[in-house]
Every structure is written in structure tokens, then in C-alpha cells.
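Notebook B, p. 112. Complex prediction, attempt 2.
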Amino acid sequence: MSRLCLILFGPPGSGKGTQAKLLRQSLAVPHISTGDMLRERMEHLDELGSQVAEMLRSGGLVPDETVNVMVEDRIAQPDCGKGFILDGYPRTVNQAAILSGLLESHNVAATLVYLKVDYNVIMARLAGRRQCPACGTLFSHSAGAPTGPEVCDHDGAQLVIREDDRQEVVAERLKAYHRQTAPVLEYFKSAGVPVWEVDGASPEGPQGIARRVRSLIEEKLVS
Ligand code: AMP
């Protein structure tokens, strides 16, 4: 079986994280979320930690060099030997070019899944999103709703609005997506990377979407 780099692509709130979590189980490869890595990095009380925290609070993108180095180190880890799922990376054409070089040197072929979701659905999803401060699980009113109105299913902690899901930050994140991230799709298409468009708001729900992505990948791996 060839090594797999599955790039989950789409705007904030398109379900990349949810899909990555479902697919990492069925494909048995690690889920690499640059957003999660950066949220972890900002807990460090050093200069880089505070720069990252400031960028995340503003809704803008962290500089390419910072993210590229993090990803380069991460995909060199032994658990990425069979492949990996990228969630939230690459987010600029520069990151896409760096990733292409890395994949070439590791002899890994990329496949991109574009989770296409209507703008109004994204806004509604992000407005309804809550996070558990204890375990980090994200909940929304439309999917995976917690049992109580505002508590986590897993540990009963009071859910909170993630700092970068505040309305004014969401507007900046969507601007960054349209300006800097959307062109990444064209970059990969022109580079001949297979791009599969999937309805990220399909009535089949997250499990159905994950099943469809998985069968596309299996077809690709055996062909
Ligand atoms: P996410 O959880 O993927 O929505 O990412 C949360 C925030 O982390 C984004 O709004 C950016 O500020 C930052 N971020 C995540 N991934 C990247 C990336 N590949 N390049 C630059 N900034 C990123």
C-alpha cells in the first residue's frame, strides 16, 4: 500500500476536524491539525507562544515559516510511516509549495478532499459551536449536540465558546480563508494532485461523509 497524505481542505466550520477524527480511526493514520498544534504551542510562556496567541486571537494566519517547521517535524515522526491526515494545513500557496517538496522527498502522494459548504451554513455552524475546556471536544447545535444544553457529554464540564469562534474573529478567519487559503485549491489542481469535492453539509451527516471519503481512498489505493 502506498503512503497516504490526505489533505482535508475547506473553510473554518466545514467539518475538517470531525472528518479527520473519524478517518484516523478507520484509516489508522495520525491526524495532524495545525490549529491544535498552535493552540498547544500558545500555552508556552515564551515569545513564540505569545506571538501565536496573538495571531489566533486576531483570526489571522500564523507566519508560514512557523507552521511549515512544525509540520515538517511532525511528519518525520515514526507514526507517520503509513501516512497521515492534514487538517488546516496547507493554508497558503507558500505552505502548499513547501508541503509538495516535503512529500516528494518522503515519496508520498497527496490526495485532497475539499469539503464544500455554503457560507450561511458555515456561519450558523460556527455561531453554534461550543468547546469543552477539559477535553477539547467541539459540539454544535446541528451535530453531536451534548446531552445537556451546555455541558460536555464526556466529562460534564461547562462548555465555552472557543476564543477564535467569537463573531468578530470568525469574520477575520473567513476573510483569511478567501484571500489566502482558497487559492491553494487551484495550486494543487494545477500540480495534478487529485482533488475530490464532497458535500460537507450532506444529509448523510459526518459518518456518511467519512464513509464516502474512505471508499474513495480505498479505490485510489488499490488502483
Ligand atoms: P483551526 O483550528 O484549523 O481553525 O485553526 C485555528 C487558527 O490557527 C487559525 O485561525 C490560524 O490563526 C491558525 N492556523 C491553523 N493552521 C494554520 C496554518 N496552516 N497556517 C497559519 N495559521 C494557521
